[in-house]
């Protein structure tokens, strides 16, 4: 009898992957949903462990639509945003779920998901522990007490990480500068988007002049955006702004808009699918104070939407050679000038400029490449493990077969 030929290293056996993260909202959730679909289509078994208290009906609907791709199902547990004693119970629950479904990949997303995936005490089998920060704790301002605290924690967790899958060169650089700890393999896997997101937009009737989509949180630079809008209106430009999203600072932002005399100029709407929203505005504004590689910028750029954004995090990676057009954060005057420049630009020149950005994004941020590169990262981590050695953070055992 002829022995079967083993799979070559670049063709891994089917994985059993658990994606672990906290809130099923925003770009992080979109990233996991896309990865889960790609991995399932490639023949792997995929499951999700996430928070049970956030996301609302939109998350429930997204998870229900994803369910046919999730051979390992969905597990939802209460998870706190900040460190809490309840994290110990979540760690045990993640470990139990990993053992119950026979997971051999625990992929943590975001700071909290990264803690759970790397510290969950899985005992029954070795697992590869992968980590994608999505900004997370790396977005704290360097030099602050919280930044030093969280970078110290990241340094400890690095020793339990088989492979870092950084979503941007920016976050990889922050890790090297602020953690620089020993740990697993390090790869940059940019967020990717699908071909349908490059379809031309059909502008709706009576569009808003400015558009913001994302969390309603001060760190997104929204007070600066409101200040810029007030300046533009004082200059005689009767602009209107649509803000789409939810977050802890919603009421504070509404109060600020009222104090600036913008109550009739600013509309607030809950989170919703982005492409129909893009069609309702002339210019997307991303005034963030910190970012990693935001999907909202990728999505707007892909659709050739006129776009004004700040020069933070991985946004320059998206803009590429056009990064000189980005504005400094926390600078209402610079943001005002940048918005006015797009408003006053000759229409054909504006269309050509953002069509060029769309073409550049199409070349560099492929969803298929993202999926392939993540699987390649898992395979490299498996190959890097010494023969017969346990995964990082795993106690040595004997007589244990390699996971398949």
TrEMBL record:
Coiled coil: none annotated. CDD domains: GT4_PimA-like (cd03801). Keywords: Transferase. InterPro entries: Glyco_trans_1, Glyco_trans_4-like_N. Residues 199-349 form the Glycosyl transferase family domain. Residues 25-193 form the Glycosyltransferase subfamily 4-like N-terminal domain. The keyword Kinase does not apply. GO terms for molecular function: glycosyltransferase activity. This is Glycosyltransferase family 4 protein. The lineage of its organism: Bacteria, Pseudomonadati, Pseudomonadota, Alphaproteobacteria, Hyphomicrobiales.
């Amino acid at each position: 009898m002829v022995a079967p030929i083993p799979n070559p290293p670049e063709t891994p056996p089917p994985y059993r992957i658990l994606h672990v993260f906290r809130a099923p909202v925003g770009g992080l959730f979109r990233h996991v949903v896309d990865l889960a679909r790609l991995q399932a289509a490639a023949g792997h078994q995929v499951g999700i462990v996430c928070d049970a208290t956030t996301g609302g009906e939109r998350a429930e609907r997204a998870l229900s639509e994803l369910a046919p791709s999730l051979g390992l199902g969905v597990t939802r547990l209460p998870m706190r945003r900040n460190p809490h004693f309840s994290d110990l119970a979540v760690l045990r629950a993640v470990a139990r779920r990993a053992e119950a479904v026979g997971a051999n990949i625990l992929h943590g997303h975001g700071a909290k998901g990264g803690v759970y995936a790397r510290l969950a005490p899985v005992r029954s089998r070795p697992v590869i522990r992968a980590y994608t920060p999505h900004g997370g704790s790396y977005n704290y301002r360097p030099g602050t007490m919280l930044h030093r605290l969280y970078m110290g924690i990241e340094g400890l967790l690095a020793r339990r990480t088989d492979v870092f899958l950084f979503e941007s060169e920016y976050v990889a650089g922050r890790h090297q500068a602020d953690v620089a700890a020993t740990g697993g393999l390090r790869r940059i896997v940019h967020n990717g988007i699908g071909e349908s997101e490059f379809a031309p937009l059909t502008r709706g009737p009576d569009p808003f002049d400015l558009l913001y989509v994302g969390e309603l949180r001060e760190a997104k630079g929204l007070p600066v955006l409101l200040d810029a809008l007030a300046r533009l209106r004082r200059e005689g430009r009767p602009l209107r702004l649509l803000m789409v999203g939810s977050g802890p600072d919603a009421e504070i932002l509404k109060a600020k808009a009222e104090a600036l005399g913008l109550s009739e100029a600013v509309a607030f709407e809950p989170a919703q699918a982005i492409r129909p929203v893009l069609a309702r505005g002339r210019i997307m504004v991303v005034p963030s104070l910190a970012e990693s590689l935001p999907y909202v910028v990728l999505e707007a750029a892909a659709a050739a939407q006129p776009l004004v954004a700040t020069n933070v995090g991985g946004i320059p990676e998206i803009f590429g050679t056009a990064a000189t057009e980005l504005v400094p954060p926390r600078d209402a005057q610079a943001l005002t000038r940048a918005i006015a420049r797009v408003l006053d630009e000759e229409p054909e020149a504006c269309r050509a400029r953002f069509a060029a950005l769309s073409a550049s994004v199409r070349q560099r941020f492929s969803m298929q490449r993202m999926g392939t590169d993540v699987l390649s990262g898992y395979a490299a981590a498996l190959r890097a493990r010494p023969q017969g050695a346990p995964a990082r953070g795993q106690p040595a055992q004997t007589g244990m077969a390699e996971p398949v």
